[in-house]
Amino acid sequence: MFDLLALTLAGQVPAEQQGENENLHWRWLGEGLLEITPRQDYQHAVVVSAGIHGNETAPIELLNQLVKDVLSGARPLAVRLLVVLGNPAAMRAGQRYLHSDMNRMFGGRYRDFDHSGETARAQQLEQVIATFFDAEKAARFHYDLHTAIRDSRLPRFGILPFQTRPYSADMLALLDAADLDALVIHSAPGGTFSHFTSEHVGAASCTLELGKARPFGSNDLQQFAAINRALQAAVSNEPLPQRPGDALRIFRVERSLIKRSEEFRLYLSDDTANFTELKQGTLLCEQSGEEYRVQHAREWILFPNPKVALGLRAGMVLIEAPRSTLY
Ligand SMILES: [Zn+2]
Fold first, then answer.
1. How far does residue 147's CA lie from ligand 1's centre (Å)?
2. CA–CA separation, 50 vs 57, rounded Å?
3. Cβ proximity of 104 and 96 under 8 Å
4. Active site residues
5. pLDDT, average across residues 293-304
């Protein structure tokens, strides 16, 4: 049977590039790209992506299994679906990326990077997304699946792109059902894949961080059971599972720490976990005459990384916000 992940890891072009059965038809659109359209009417058009960072294997395996189940008929398809394995070359190498981080490049920002396989791929993905949603009347969704490099005090969380319109109630229901610990709301546009689909095609979009990155075959897929069930329900248009745990915590980005000079210093140890709490007044970072001290009684650090290239984000400082911030 058609196995998108096996084909992509082998770098092969499939002998059959489209097919159909009584429920759906599918088209291979290029490396790591598969469009599946149900024969029945649908109200949702959904992009699910994984492997924008090539070593984040668990979501890639989870997504591939979902595709297999849909193609085999084991799972009914009730939405138009675009499956994206983001960075095949990095997946084959078991690396986050080969040259530059693709998830900073979207929205045309690939032009600001040295030309590489990743800038070409980001440009291709933008075109594929635009074509998929062109003239599409159904409600639009994009879930971009990731795992994090570092430990996290709140292990599973979603990151919502900055947007001026309210966040989709359907998407928030899925994120609740996926048993995430937290949602983080961006306060400014960025180069992520989910920001691109939110801004440029009006999709309800979210980046999902689902645990820690491990090599292919070493993942405890049980850890991903809740998001798996939520995505299964979404593609089959079935009722979402009940959220078992505590309510989602909501954070918003208070400040992005941009590295502007080589003297940039971040005063956190290399192994600082995401969502580590920072106390008011703590000197967090400094560079050429500029410093940042924790402003609020409690702030939290996300994605600290002082090794990024100049001009890029070396971390984000969060504050907790009421759920009403989402509407
Ligand atoms: Zn990632």
1. 5
2. 8
3. no
4. 209
5. 96
